[in-house]
Amino acid sequence: MFKKATLFLKKMYDAVVAAAEKPQAVWILALVSFAESSCFPIPPDVILIPMMIAKPKNAFKYAAICTLASVAGGAAGYAIGLFLYDTVAVPVFEFYGYTDKLKMFIDSYNKYGAWIVAGAGFTPFPYKVITITSGMTHLNFGIFMLTSVLSRGARFFLLAALLWKFGAPIQTFIDKNLGWLATLFFLLLVGGILAAKGF
Question: In angstroms, rounded to a whole number, what is the distance separating the alpha carbons of residues 47 and 31?
Fold first, then answer.
């Protein structure tokens, strides 16, 4: 079962990479970016990076498209969580007598919601998990959208800046270390903000 799932994901990955060479690549990029924020397992980077390398002058345009589509997909994920909350989560927790624990989880999540969304939006953590959870916990939609725009935009525009500046030679380095680079940059950003606040 696991082997079949792995092969399916590999085929899907290869198909997404191959799509970067097609004339309609921009539309495919937007579709993958949208879907990845709510249900699709392949991140848009796999099509975004080849497109940026093929046409460096369009790198920031592609980053903008990726950001807008990803944020729109995040809103769709939020809606999924919002509507599934009442129909699925609440009855299950009530059945097992965990209503108080559910409330504690929601309160805790919403207390740090902006940081959680920012972290997932910028780092390799599956963003779809956070978009759906944010809807399920009724995280303030304005905060969710603002944080999504900033974190997703920072991720894709940083990628665009690196590829625009260094070109194809840096692709291998980014492919191997994107997760670590994004996480490190995010931690430095958070550290800088906390230091500025005097924490």
Answer: 11
Query: What's the DSSP call for residue 168?
Result: G
The vertex-173 CA angle with 70 and 47, nearest 5°, equals 35
| Residue among 160, 14, 139 nearest 74 (CA) | 139
Per DSSP, the residues of 8-64 read HHHHHHHHHHHHTTSTTHHHHHHHHHHHHTTT-SS-THHHHHHHHHH-GGGHHHHHH
- Give tens-digit pLDDT for 88-115: 666 766 776 767 777 777 888 888 888 8
Contacts of 183 (CB under 8 A, 6+ apart): 123, 124
Number of domains in the chain: 1
pTM for the full predicted model: 0.73
Ordered alpha helix ranges (H), 55-112: 59-84, 90-95, 99-111
